[in-house]
Amino acid sequence: MSDAMTILQSLERPWEEVHLARAAEQIALLYGYRRFALFTLPAADDNRASLSFLFGNWELSFLAAYEKLGLLRFSPVIRALKAGPAPFVWDVEMLHGAEEEGEPNPPAHLLNSHGFHSGVYVPIQGMTTFQGALAFAGEGPPLSEERAAELQLPAFAIFGMLAACRFEENRKSNPLSTRERDCLKLAMLGKTSSEIGTILSLSEYTISQYLSSATRKVNASNRTHAVAIAAQMGYLS
Fold first, then answer.
1. Hey, what CATH topology would domain 3-171 get?
2. To bridge 226 with a disulfide, which of 42, 185, 186, 220 should be the other Cys (CB 3.0-4.6 Å)?
3. Which CATH architecture has domain 174-233?
C-alpha cells in the first residue's frame, strides 16, 4: 500500500472534511507540493464548461485571480484530462510560456508569484466520462510519469471520501420535513400525486402542496428535478 493510501486509511469514521483536508495536504507534501485542490467539470459535454473548485487549500485571493484570468477554462488542461486516465504533469512554461522582461504574461506571473511552478492534475474518470481532477502544485520539479501514476488511487479515494463527508453533512442539515421526504421518495418510484395520496392517506391537493414546498426548498425547477437534487444531497436517506 502506498504512503498516500496509508494516510487516507488512517482517518477515523465518520470522515470529516477538515480531517480529509489535512490528509490531502500531507499527501501533497509527500510529493513535494504545498497546494492541493479538487475540481469537478459540471458540464462534461460542454466545450465551454470550466472546472469547478470543490475543495482545497488555495488562498481565496489566488483562486479569485485564477478564475478572473480564465484559467479554470484553460482548454489544453481540460482536453488532456478528458482524453484519458493518465495524470497530466505540467510546469508554468509548458502551459503559459516563460515570463520575459517587458513582456506581460499575467497567467505565468500569477502562478510563479504564488509558488505554483509545477504540478499535476490527476483525472477522476467515470465509466464513460471525465468527472473531475485532483490537482497538486508547488515549487519543486515536475513529477515523473511513474510517480504521478501513484496518485491515481488516492485521487479516487479523496473524491469519494469528500462526497461521503458532504452527503452526511447535508443529511444532518436536511431542510425537508418528514412528509416532504416521504412524498419525494414515492415520487422517485414513479408514483403520481394521486397514488402518493392513497399510500399516505392524504388528499392529492395536500400531496401537491408538499411536493411544491420541497421543490422550493431545494431550489429545483420541478418535482423530477427536486427528487434528483434531494437524492444527491442525501436528503432522502
1. Beta-Lactamase (3.30.450)
2. 220
3. Orthogonal Bundle (1.10)
Q: Which of 46, 24, 50, 49 is nearest to 37 (CA)?
A: 24
Q: Are 15 and 165 in contact (CB under 8 A)?
A: yes
- Residue 182, C-beta contacts closer than 8 angstroms, at least 6 positions apart: 200
52-110 tens-digit pLDDT? 899 999 999 999 999 999 988 876 788 888 788 899 999 999 999 999 888 899 999 99
- Domain spans in the chain, listed from the N-terminal domain onward: 3-171, 174-233
End-to-end alpha-carbon separation of the chain, Å? Answer: 33
User: Is the predicted pLDDT of residue 210 greater than 50, yes or no?
Assistant: yes
Output the pTM of the full model. 0.75
